[in-house]
Specification:
Layout: E1 11-20, E2 25-30, E3 39-40, E4 42-45, H1 53-65, E5 72-82, E6 91-99, E7 114-118, H2 120-126, H3 130-142, H4 156-161, E8 167-170, H5 175-184, E9 189-192, H6 201-212, E10 216-218, E11 240-244, E12 257-261, H7 270-278, E13 285-290, H8 298-305, E14 311-313, H9 333-338, E15 344-348, H10 353-361, E16 366-370, E17 375-376, H11 382-395, E18 401-407, H12 415-427, E19 431-437, E20 452-455, H13 460-465, E21 473-474, H14 476-482
Parallel strand pairs: 1-6, 8-12, 9-10, 9-11, 11-12, 13-14, 13-15, 15-16, 18-19, 18-20, 20-21
Antiparallel strand pairs: 1-2, 1-4, 2-3, 2-7, 5-6, 16-17
Length: 497
């Protein structure tokens, strides 16, 4: 160790300020009450076995937050010395910025009890030590964010301050919804339904119209989630939306009062369902994930399976998920948070869409149980899914010209990520161009002089619909593999945060 000016031996330390995207959001961690209860970055002492300061930082990132493979490390050229509160050896702290691939939830060690991804101004307000706040300002200058913090469309706090329209959540399409609509005095309503409910959409519209006395129009395109509800120009004159089959996404802004009718199913005969699940031979500790329609089954099923020797574990995801145990096609962070604590996952719902996404996101067997039919499906073959994707990546390693696909939907727009990918491509001697649309259509990409596409809109476009496109379509993590920045051995799901 080096010596301080007063002759004492210094303890070298490192701090990592994790950030994602441009404009950036920063990860802050909270100490438990016994250790002060305040917010800090990742930090730790340099050990004798650490080959360098950066090696120490990477070890601390893995130990404290579970980030073993950051996108890049940015030395801040910032050093501060201080005396620890316990009167021990004087410390010298070296700061680093750490870019991550999306706002992934950390795996917390015992040193922290909570985390949040926040805008820079929030980090500057919450971080406990003045030195931490100084380091954040240096980081923002280092990555080009020198101006005042910019408003982010998905910031629910900002929306609340502006008096933005609210999400109203109803469990079913019934009198509770009708009464809420009647009392609000709307002029005109747009009804949007997912593909599975299109057949009955016009009957639902007629029922809503008759029960409320409010004019109702039906949005012709199906809704895949709360990320792609209609824009104002699609439904002129409308001052409220009724969206069937989906829950709100908390960090997606609303432009009109929106009634999310989740179409929840009652739990039914829980003992019968538990017995059928128990006969499937699942391991003792199983992570539970469900579509919003079957979330009411989570608690009673957990109680019913415990005496049968199966412990169900539920995780809480990031700010894109409204409920614990919930799955979105683009986000399985609740499952990722508990993957290390379980031996398999059980998905409650119909179809294969969510189980396939879950299998991409977690390295555990995924079983799907349909509560309506009482049927268990065979585990998803994750190895085959990933092998197919890696073959596609291999086909694009020599690609020279990429199209970066961006959606203008409020819940799918990642223009900041697209700009960062263009810079990555250019650093590797490749060409890249942004192509923007609301809903992406393969026909719009035909005839273009491009070798491959990178999809920053709904992550499932690349995974589920790639064969429909005239050129290979990669996710952002796959693109980093293709240009050699990320190894092929660590496949990552493109989680939308």
């Amino acid at each position: 160790m080096a010596d301080a000016a007063d002759g004492r031996t210094l303890q070298e330390c490192v701090e990592g300020y994790l950030f994602s995207g441009l404009p950036p959001r920063l990860l802050i961690l909270r100490r438990p009450p016994g250790r002060g209860g305040f917010w800090v970055p990742v930090s730790g002492k340099v050990e004798p076995t650490d080959a360098s300061l950066e090696a120490a930082l990477r070890r601390e990132l893995a130990e404290e937050a579970g980030f073993a493979d950051p996108v890049r490390v940015v030395p801040l050229d910032w050093v501060v010395e201080f005396d620890p509160p316990d009167g021990g050896r004087r410390m010298r702290l070296h700061g680093f910025g750490v870019e991550t691939d999306g706002e992934k939830p950390p795996t917390l060690s015992s040193e922290h009890d909570a985390f949040e991804w926040v805008d820079p101004e929030v980090a500057l307000a919450r971080l406990h030590y003045p030195d931490n706040r100084e380091a954040v300002r240096i980081l923002l200058r280092a990555i080009g964010e020198t101006g005042p913090p910019r408003a982010r469309p998905g910031d629910p706090g900002s929306a609340a301050r502006r008096g933005a329209p609210r999400a109203k959540v109803l469990p079913r399409f019934d009198e509770e919804l009708f009464a809420a609509v009647r009392s609000a005095g709307h002029r005109k309503i747009a009804l949007q339904v997912p593909a599975g409910l299109v057949r009955n959409a016009h009957d639902r519209a007629a029922e809503l119209r008759a029960a409320t006395g409010v004019p109702v129009v039906v949005v012709s395109r199906a809704c895949f989630g709360a990320c792609d509800f209609p824009a104002p120009e699609e439904v002129p004159g409308v001052d409220a939306l009724v969206v069937l089959g989906h829950s709100p996404i908390p960090n997606v802004p609303l432009w009109a009062t929106t009634y999310f009718v989740e179409m929840r199913y009652p739990p039914g005969d829980v003992e019968r369902l538990a017995e059928r699940i128990a006969r499937a031979g699942l391991p003792k500790r199983v992570g539970l994930v469900a579509s919003v329609q079957h979330l009411d089954l989570v608690a009673p099923l957990t109680r019913a399976l415990a005496p049968r020797g199966i412990s169900l574990v539920v995780g809480t995801g990031d700010r894109r998920l409204a409920y614990p145990a919930q799955a979105l096609g683009c986000n399985y962070t609740g499952a990722e948070a508990i993957a290390g604590d379980v031996d398999a996952f059980l998905f409650l719902g119909t179809g294969t869409f969510h189980p396939i996404g879950l299998a991409f996101a977690v390295d555990r067997p995924v079983h799907a149980f349909d509560p309506l039919r009482g049927e268990m499906s065979a585990p998803i073959d994750r190895a085959k899914l990933i092998a197919d994707r890696l073959r596609l990546v291999a086909r694009t390693m020599d690609a020279k010209r990429f199209g970066i696909l961006v959606s203008s939907f409020a819940g799918q727009e990642r223009a900041g990520m697209a700009s960062a990918l263009i810079e990555r491509a250019r650093r590797q001697g490749r060409e890249a161009e942004i192509l923007i649309a609301a809903r992406l259509d393969p026909r719009d990409l035909e005839g273009r002089d491009l070798d491959a596409y990178v999809n920053t809109a709904c992550p499932r476009i690349a995974l589920d619909d790639s064969s429909l496109y005239p050129r290979p379509v990669l996710t952002p993590p796959e693109f980093l593999m293709a240009i050699g920045e990320v190894p092929l051995t660590d496949y990552r799901f493109d989680t939308f945060h």
